[in-house]
Structures are given as structure tokens and as C-alpha cells.
Amino acid sequence: MTIKFLDQDPIVISRRKLVQGLAAGSIVAVAGCARNQAIGRDQLLLVSEGQIAQMAASSWTQLKRQTKISKDRTLNRRLNTVGNRIVQTAGLQNQPWEFTVFDDDQANAFVLPGGKVGFYKGIFKRMKNDHHLATVMGHEVGHVTGKHAAERYSQQVAAGVVTTAAAVALEAGDVRGGAQIAGILGLGVQFGILLPYSRRHELEADRLGVNYMHRAGYDARQAVAFWDNMSSQRTGSSPPEFMSTHPSDATRKNAIRQELQRLGIA
Q: Which of 35, 67, 182, 196 has the fewest CB atoms lying closer than 10 Å?
């Protein structure tokens, strides 16, 4: 592998030295792997769901202090009704859930570990009916079933170990430009592992969400219509998909259509 920096001669590093730098991170990854049947793959989980929920608890409390909570009875009733139906079909009704409408015009929604679901008031403007609401709610509950928060946290920890180990190995090997190389490895981890996994999480949550809303009695075919609405009202240009934490709207809708076909309801 050859790397050249401005005003410097090319730096050559052997594949063996590169592997030495990454080895320590692989030990962490192997030690924390667990099978998640809901998404059908192994996950790197260095923390439990309980631990990650404790980490998120203070953020949820702070958010509710800093952001005005909507008193709109209709919106709150709709959110709680749809939320409880989706949670029931996901088999997560024994967990403590909290559904909150924030009085903010941004078109967004989120879920925190521990079943804390927030919908900003602005996203309701993108929804024509409760089928669209179930699309978003199913997606958020899908993140919980997929244990995506715990996996994301674990990946960040492992990525830090990998890049640190690489820097140490390069320094120990007296490789000139080791710090710059370690920085490039960090970018490689970001664009080659973390961002693709983030997009994978979004698509997994979409897939689970479509299943949950279908089983809860909502029209899962309207998930595509909801994303059509989101696309048509989006302002500004989006970054290239490989640089984004979320898949493009086209990728997302195509994946949803494939899941609808698999369910036989396309």
C-alpha cells in the first residue's frame, strides 16, 4: 500500500503492518458478537439494552425540558393509539414505552433506547392518514427490535480501538507518516463501515416497520406513498448516499417495495 502526502515522498506500508494495526479491534468485535433473529444476522454488542437505555435516559429528560411538548389532544391520541398497536405486534408490549409529540415544526421523529419515542409536530404535516403515521412508528420500533442503538455504540467503541491500535502499531514500526495513515484509516472506517451500517440500520428498520404495520392492520402499501410525500417536500440537495447516514429515498422505496412483494401485498 502506497500513500503520498503533499511535498513528501510516497510512504509504503506493508499489508502485514496494516493487519497488525487492525488486529486489536478484531478481538473486541469477536468478543461481543450476538445473533439477532429479528434481523437475521450477528451483531457487535458491547453493551446491553438496559445499559444503553440508562445512557439515553438523561438525554430524554433534558430534551423534554428544552423542547416544548404539544398539548394537542388529537395528535397525542393518534400517536399513542398507533404506537401501542405497533408495539403490540412487535411483541414489545412488556417494555415501558413513552410517546411524546414535541411542538416543533421540523419534520422528524426518533426513538431512544428504553422505548422513548418522539414525534415533532412538523412531521404530521407530511402524513395524510394514520397509515403514514404507522409507517414512521413501525420504523422507530424497528430500530428497537434491531438493537441498532446498542450496535451503533459498540461500533463506535470498536472503531476507536481499531484506529488507535493502528496508530500504535505504525508508531511502533517506526513508519514515517504514521499519524496521517492512521487518520486515513479512520476515514476508511467511517465511510467503509460506520456509514454503510447506519444506512443498513435504516433499511432494516423500514423492513421491520412494514411488517409491524401490516400485522397491526394498517395498509403497508402506503409506506411508499409516505416516502413520496417526504421526497416531494424535501428542500435543498442531499449528500451522495455513500456519505450519508440514511439511504436515498429511491433506495428506501425500492427496498420497501421488495418487502411488500415478499409479503404478497404489493
A: 35
Nearest residue to 138 (alpha-carbon basis) of 238, 67, 38: 38
Residue 53's identity, in one-letter code, is A
Residue located via cell numbers 409491524: 212
C-alpha cell at 217: 392492520
Alpha carbon separation from 142 to 80, 89, 103, 153, 171 (Å, rounded): 17, 11, 24, 17, 43
> Does the pTM of the predicted model rise above 0.70?
yes
* d(C-alpha 47, C-alpha 183), whole Å: 27
Taking only the tens place, the pLDDT of each residue in 106-126 is 888 988 888 999 999 999 999
Give the SS3 label for residue 110: strand
Residues 228 and 19: their CA atoms lie apart, in Å, by 45
* Alpha carbon separation from 1 to 10, 144, 197, 235 (Å, rounded): 10, 40, 26, 42
Give CA angle at 252 (248, 255), nearest 5°. Answer: 140
Catalytic residue among 49, 140, 171, 204: 140
Confidence band, pLDDT 50/70/90 cuts, at residue 201: confident
Do 205 and 146 meet the contact criterion of CB atoms below 8 Å apart? yes
Which residues are 102's β-sheet partners? 69, 120
Q: Does residue 140 carry a catalytic annotation?
A: yes
User: For the chain, what are the domain ranges?
Assistant: 2-263
Cell numbers 416531494 label which residue? 232
Which three three-digit cell numbers place residue 181?
495513515
CB 208 within 8 A of CB 148: no
Q: Please say whether the beta carbons of 119 and 70 come within 8 A.
A: no
